[in-house]
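Sync notes, pocket subgroup
Present: LS, DG
LS reminded everyone that the earlier model was apo-only. Rerun requested with guanosine-5'-triphosphate included. Inputs:
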Amino acid sequence: MTQGGGDTICGIATPPGEGGVGIVRISGRRAIAVAEKIVRLRSGRRLRGSLSHCLHVADMVFPKRTAPADPIGEPAGKGEEDFIDQGLVVWMKAPRSYTGEDVVELHCHGSQMVLRLLCEACVQAGARLAEPGEFTKRAFLNGRLDLSQAEAVLETITATTEAALRMAQRNLRGELGRLVNELRERLLVLLCEIEAGIDFVEEDVTFISPEQLAAGLEDTLAHVERLLNCAETGRRVREGARVVIVGPPNVGKSSLLNVLLGENRAIVTDVPGTTRDLIEESVVWDGLQMALIDTAGVRDTDDVVEQEGIKRTRTAIEESDAVILVFDVREAANVEEGIQGVGLVPRHQGQHKIVVLNKCDLVPSELAAEAARSVADRCGLPVVVTSVRTGWGLDHLKQAIRRSLTQDLLEPREAVVFVNARHRQALERAKTALINTRDSIRNKRGAEVLAVDLREAADALGEITGAITSDEILNRIFSQFCVGK
Ligand SMILES: Nc1nc2c(ncn2[C@@H]2O[C@H](COP(=O)(O)OP(=O)(O)OP(=O)(O)O)[C@@H](O)[C@H]2O)c(=O)[nH]1
Ligand SMILES: [Mg+2]
């Protein structure tokens, strides 16, 4: 499988700029031969004769350089080697390497000049400069990674929050690939049964009953839908979720924003209608990024500025991933009215909503607890009792927000894989094809028709892992990588 006919490639694996260490990577059938022209192990051994997967101290030199060698010293004598740097060298024998080919890494000082010269030396020694993502592409082509894992390499490199990183690493470990493969295998088994049925139609043998087929389809469809839900979580985690704080005037929305941000961002007064405009700030909680948005309290008003503020509140609600509905606990009886006042339907699915009953310091605790129970029963929404003044309930609220946005992403027991836009498209196609198959069974269409749709669903799933792929898909994915990856 490995060491195919392709060229031997080289590239700088570390980021541009100065650093402690810089790494040039070489991969391909001739990687060791190329490196042997450049590295001189201090042990005096040849690279090939030294241990694989171990670091060796080495000088790195130009194999042969024709141009005037040393601009500040003596010109190099005939056959004399130009010293580039000293460092460490590791070689990894195929197939136990990132790409599945022979790989050599030259660890030198983190200087762009040294790294450039080393690449130049590699090219002189017979390698060519790698294209973006070419190392990872080779890893995929050699079966070291499936396509979802290759994408997870990029997602890992570009993750900016802990939650994004964890999700990327689940995919890197192959979880998405495993889930998708299981579904695809199941569809292929069903397809086999149906196709066998087609072949033996004359002999009147039934291979799979329509009921069995329908049950298999339903189950697969449910899994595909679950993965599609992960896409939404994935987007929120990568881009940061939008959480909007709404409610009637003077209930403590701006106070809540300030305490959640840990800074006095919004003006707080006891005058109802203090906040007029949207106030947006981003925070990272436990590795999860989100934008918190404070809004103007919603009420009937003749004030044109306030009316505009309320209009903006409504737009912010429409664009949000989660809504925190804040009320004064003493007004708990009017919560439903208040929810309708901001234009929300309590039991409407899709957007996450949390009711906050604030200012609980102003009422006896049993009363607050009773109010929370009653609101939860009536509205069917999670309710958190808080006092921004004393800090009561704020940790609980943070947890509730986090949970609603991530479906427990940060708890390992409820694994959420990262479904990116490409996976989502493929899953949508699979879903449509599965629904078509289901309709065909219900309408008693022929096995040939079923087979076409099932095949389409299996192929769509195959695109996620790269079991089914095209140059176009591969180019699109790997061109997003940097050169040394
Ligand atoms: N006792 C008590 N007072 C609070 C609490 N939270 C906020 N307040 C007070 O309530 C008043 C209104 O607070 P804000 O945060 O400005 O309320 P708001 O909902 O943003 O009001 P608008 O911007 O006018 O819609 C201020 O005097 C706060 O100090 C709380 O938990 N307990
Ligand atoms: Mg306010």
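DG: The chain has three domains: 9-130, 157-234+420-478, 242-406.
LS: DSSP finds 15 helices and 13 strands in the chain.
Action: DG to write up.
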